[in-house]
Request: fold
Amino acid sequence: MITRIVKLEFQEERTQDFLDFFDTIKHIVNEFPGCYGMKLYQDIDRPNIVMTYSHWDSETSLNKYRDSEQFGKIWPRIKPWFKEKPQAWSVAAYFDGFQQEKH
Reply:
């Protein structure tokens, strides 16, 4: 399993446009074959910075999404709204303390 983290920094005036659009397409990624789920995080101090955090069964599945028709419609729509070039990382967990419930 891999985790994909993508940092997106939007023009301040386009942040709400992105969030509104995201609400209409979030299930496309979340339900894509090979994706185990996705979260969207928004920076507390700089709300125009968001990060997607998704789990994939493999890099092959992630690349199938990136090459998909759905991604081909999403990315061109949001790309003009960026303030900075997006950054992305594919990572494997070295330690995961979230899997244990704490009482």
Observations:
- The longest helix spans residues 15-30.
- The mean pLDDT is 94.
- The two ends are 27 Å apart (CA to CA).
- The chain is about 35% helix and 30% strand.
